């Protein structure tokens, strides 16, 4: 059996294990290990007396991966970003940012909903947790909206959709993971996420204002805040802005040299949020909880990373990604149509799978294919299919798949954000939330269309960083 | 997408062993969490030293690389105990009773075989860099300040051995549920629906805002 055939069997087996409910990280690692054994054994002609040798070499090859792959400075960004997220709950940032957003934006039609979108976008960005953000703001923002006569479903939809803005605006752990798997510049990916994330929030806001202007009873404006009150609300919400700005400036400083590395930016951001949490009276037991939660989520992510990297080590021997890339670039269909099909496949997959697991499992095979579609990893913009150089295409595709993964959090049948909002509010059914989130679903589809049609929205900021 | 799940307890030997092992797992996970915190302190120190005192922290990258296995791997058994490793539960979530326990049992048996193999592989990786006769018992060291690498390599087989113990307990737990046809067995993470997970998530965050 040739290596590609072994690659197909093993990858098929891995997908089967994942579908049957095996933990993703272990399914990937097991597929990798079995694949390595198989491929080494096949090299020795599948002789029975060589099986022991193949087993030993494969296990020793796989056994190096966890230590050697996680011992990297770049990967240390992931735990710091996660720590920021868990400390953020204790820093009193949720109410502070909602209050500030309310005082600054609630005067427009649908103002409280617009404020909710900006507040959730800010908090989701810093906490990096879409689902948890939706849970928190369902308790803070929905009661306030209902109090002044908002439609119940609409209010729920705003919160569920707002939570999805977590993964693009820096700090974003998922973009770091993407950058590492595809071996691209982490800093540029973090920068690239900012404008599409902010753009999505603005699209949501425009949509809300439009709805509130057409249907007058949907979301009445809230007026009466003085400028003094507005400015008074800012200091408490400042750490959120500070974290985002610091991470951007540590990667790219438009006024001079970057302040340092993204890792340092993440750590300084975490330190600011930690100081704020201590200032707000975080107790030692709460710090312990935050550290345990950070450890749990970090380990979960890293287990998938090294599990998938064992699988990737095997894929290297089997050359499956190369064969898939060759096949996809030999198709007659236009590269753009193929890219759109890939994105739609992610939309379907994302309905059933966690974003990180989905990206890590598929990218080792899909990413080289997308690069091949564009004309190769080192292609210049002039010779490429999508009109951008190889590294830029990598950034653009990363932002698109992450946006797709977030989009899946509000798509039926198991958009998790909608379940969370309904779970927190006993007066709302899941169907209510799905109905309320419908306009945002359409807005997201439009946003993704715009990001595909106008890649400059994504690529402008990272191209400035050189 | 199981993020975390409920684990039931009672006074049986299995449940007592489960809670005993949980103490060790929690200790390991806490080391991992404290290492993340130290990572933050180290980076702030490094930036502060460089920016304000023109004296960057020596061996900053070496320290981070040495800390990463503690951060990324030590808590692996704790996460398994809590049902925190993600999976796709659309099919397995539909199963009930013995069919569910059989599927879970098969899954943990396979994971145990994998982890035993990787414990051996990771131990071999450690063993190649450890030498009682060498300075600092080390055959290799980090580039900048020459930290020995074997301690961080040793973390991996140790953590993998602990998750192997956890998997043995889970095999016992699911096996018992399968044989006795239990509804809600102890010492194993139970599958939760999306709505239950959402409630758990909301409760966990209760009072934090």
From TrEMBL, chain B:
InterPro entries: DctQ (IPR055348), TRAP_DctQ (IPR007387). Residues 39-172 form the Tripartite ATP-independent periplasmic transporters DctQ component domain. It is found in: Cell inner membrane. It is a multi-pass membrane protein. It comes from the Bacteria. The keyword Transmembrane applies. Keywords: Cell inner membrane, Cell membrane, Membrane, Transmembrane, Transmembrane helix, Transport. The chain crosses the membrane at residues 26-48, 60-78, 99-123, 154-174. Pfam families: DctQ. Coiled coil: none annotated. Part of the tripartite ATP-independent periplasmic (TRAP) transport system. Belongs to the TRAP transporter small permease family. The complex comprises the extracytoplasmic solute receptor protein and the two transmembrane proteins. This is TRAP transporter small permease protein. The lineage of its organism: Bacteria, Pseudomonadati, Pseudomonadota, Alphaproteobacteria, Rhodobacterales.
């Amino acid at each position: 059996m040739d290596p590609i055939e072994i690659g197909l069997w093993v990858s098929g087996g891995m997908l089967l294990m994942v579908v049957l409910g095996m933990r993703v990280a272990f399914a990937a690692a097991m597929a990798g290990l079995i694949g390595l054994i198989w491929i080494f054994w096949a090299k020795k002609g599948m002789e029975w007396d060589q099986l022991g040798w193949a087993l030993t070499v494969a296990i020793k090859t796989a056994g190096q991966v966890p230590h050697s792959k996680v011992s990297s400075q770049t990967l240390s960004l992931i735990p710091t970003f996660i720590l920021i997220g868990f400390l953020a709950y204790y820093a009193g940032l949720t109410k502070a940012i909602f209050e500030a957003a309310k005082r600054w934006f609630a005067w427009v039609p649908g103002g409280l909903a617009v404020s909710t979108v900006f507040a959730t976008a800010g908090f989701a960005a810093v906490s990096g947790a879409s689902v948890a953000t939706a849970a928190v703001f369902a308790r803070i923002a929905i009661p306030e909206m209902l109090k002044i006569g908002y439609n119940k479903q609409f209010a729920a939809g705003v919160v569920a959709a707002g939570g999805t803005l977590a993964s693009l605006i820096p700090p974003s752990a998922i973009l770091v993971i993407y950058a590492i798997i595809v071996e691209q510049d982490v800093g540029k990916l973090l920068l690239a996420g900012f404008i599409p994330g902010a753009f999505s929030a603005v699209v949501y806001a425009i949509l809300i204002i439009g709805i509130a202007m057409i249907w007058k009873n949907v979301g009445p404006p809230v007026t009466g805040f003085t400028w003094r009150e507005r400015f008074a609300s800012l200091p408490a919400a400042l750490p959120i802005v500070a974290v985002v700005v610091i991470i951007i400036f540590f990667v790219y400083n438009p006024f001079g040299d970057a302040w340092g590395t993204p890792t340092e930016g993440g750590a300084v951001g975490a330190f600011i949020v930690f100081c704020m949490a201590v200032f707000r009276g975080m107790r030692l037991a709460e710090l312990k909880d935050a550290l345990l939660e950070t450890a749990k989520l970090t380990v979960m992510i890293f287990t998938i990373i090294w599990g998938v990297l064992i699988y990737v080590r095997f894929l290297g021997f089997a050359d499956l990604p190369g064969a898939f890339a060759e096949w996809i670039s030999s198709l007659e269909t236009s590269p753009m149509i193929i890219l759109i099909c890939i994105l739609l496949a992610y939309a379907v997959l994302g309905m059933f799978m966690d974003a990180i697991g989905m990206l890590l499992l598929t990218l080792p095979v899909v990413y080289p294919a997308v690069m091949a579609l564009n004309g190769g990893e080192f292609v210049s913009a002039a010779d490429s299919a999508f009109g951008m150089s190889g590294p830029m295409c990598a950034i653009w595709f990363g932002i698109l798949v992450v946006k797709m993964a977030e989009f899946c959090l509000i798509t039926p049948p198991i958009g998790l954000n909608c379940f969370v909002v309904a779970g927190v509010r006993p007066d709302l059914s899941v169907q209510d939330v799905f109905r309320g989130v419908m306009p945002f679903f359409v807005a997201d589809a439009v946003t993704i269309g715009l990001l595909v049609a106008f890649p400059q929205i994504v690529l402008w900021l990272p191209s400035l960083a050189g | 997408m199981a993020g975390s799940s409920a684990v039931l307890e009672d006074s049986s030997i299995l449940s007592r062993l489960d809670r005993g092992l949980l103490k060790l797992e929690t200790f390991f996970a806490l080391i991992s969490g404290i290492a993340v915190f130290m990572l933050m302190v180290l980076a702030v120190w490094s930036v502060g030293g460089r920016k304000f005192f023109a004296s960057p922290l020596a061996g900053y990258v070496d320290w981070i690389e040495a800390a990463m296995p503690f951060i990324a791997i030590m808590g692996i058994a704790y996460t398994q105990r809590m049902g925190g490793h993600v999976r796709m539960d659309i099919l397995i979530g539909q199963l009930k009773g013995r069919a569910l326990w059989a599927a879970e049992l098969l899954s943990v048996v396979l994971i145990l075989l994998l982890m035993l193999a990787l414990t051996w592989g990771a131990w071999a990786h450690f063993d190649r860099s450890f030498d009682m006769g060498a300075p600092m018992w080390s055959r290799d060291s980090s580039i900048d300040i020459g930290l020995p690498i074997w301690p961080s390599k040793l973390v991996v087989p140790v953590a993998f051995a602990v998750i192997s113990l956890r998997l043995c307990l889970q095999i016992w737990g699911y096996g018992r549920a399968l044989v006795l046809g239990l509804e809600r067995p102890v010492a194993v993470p139970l599958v939760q629906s999306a709505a239950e997970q959402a409630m758990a998530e909301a409760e966990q965050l209760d009072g934090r805002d």
